């Protein structure tokens, strides 16, 4: 009888351990999802209305450690990540060394994820291929949010 009680105690302890691990993973996922400032992005989009038309001249960091940083766009692609040789060096723990690239094709700008760990998001959609970026549409890389501006 003691063997059965010991086995049930072990099984109960193992079950509690797995529930704890599940709760920790769920909490971390929720923190990462809200850390990108998705609430702030939705509020800004409602206040701003529809996308403005015209050609983008600047890349502006709207949220994150580099907020209010402005880069003048030219013909060269903009590399974003934690690497020191990136055009926009992100001091963000959720950004990869080479996270994303913003490149010009004609009058339009396209963003593409460079195989990052946490992904790149255009508005609220995950970027899997090169995607055209409308002006004033938020691009989220970790906790950093950037936009193209005329």
UniProtKB/TrEMBL annotation:
Xref: SMART domains: FHA (SM00240)
Keyword Kinase included in the entry's annotation: no
Keyword Iron-sulfur listed: no
Keywords: Phosphoprotein
Domain FHA: 78-127
Pfam families the UniProt entry points to: FHA
InterPro entries from the UniProt entry: FHA_dom (IPR000253), SMAD_FHA_dom_sf (IPR008984)
Protein name: FHA domain-containing protein
Organism: Gordonia amarae NBRC 15530
